[in-house]
């Protein structure tokens, strides 16, 4: 009976040591994540951006149809009169500013 008690005590001690190591490892991982996200926050403040894409620095989170949000690109293109650009009616409000920027 005493041998069983001794064995149980050793197992308990080993389990506590394992938990301590697991907690220490997890704490270290969390500290690294905190540093990483802190550096991203500094980049955001310096650049003046409100968001940073983790997959592609040029993409942004945009709201699509029906309230769906996805990380994507918002591309506008401008061409000269010779190429006869066709622009959908819902996008015409963006065409004039792009043409003005192109002339500069």
Structure, briefly:
The chain has 104 residues and is mostly helical. The chain has two domains: 1-73, no CATH class; 74-104, no CATH class. The chain contains two helices and two strands; from the N terminus they run H-E-E-H.
Task: Please give the structural blueprint.
Blueprint: H1 2-47, E1 60-63, E2 69-72, H2 92-103
Antiparallel strand pairs: 1-2
Number of domains: 2
Q: Note the run of SSEs as H and E.
A: HEEH
Count of runs of 4 or more consecutive helical residues:
2
The shape is rod-shaped
* Beta content: 5-15%
Largest sheet report? 2 strands, antiparallel
* Proportion in helices: 55-70%
Radius of gyration: 29 Å
Spatial gap, N to C terminus:
91 Å
The count of strands amounts to: 2
Q: How is this structure best described in words?
A:
With 104 residues, the chain is mainly alpha-helical. It has 2 domains: 1-73, no CATH class; 74-104, no CATH class. The chain contains 2 helices and 2 strands. The protein has helices spanning 2-47, 92-103, and strands at residues 60-63, 69-72. The protein has a two-stranded antiparallel sheet with strand order 1-2. The longest helix is centred in the first third of the chain and has 46 residues, at 2-47. The protein is rod-shaped. It starts with a helix and ends with a helix. The model has no long low-confidence stretch (mean pLDDT 78).
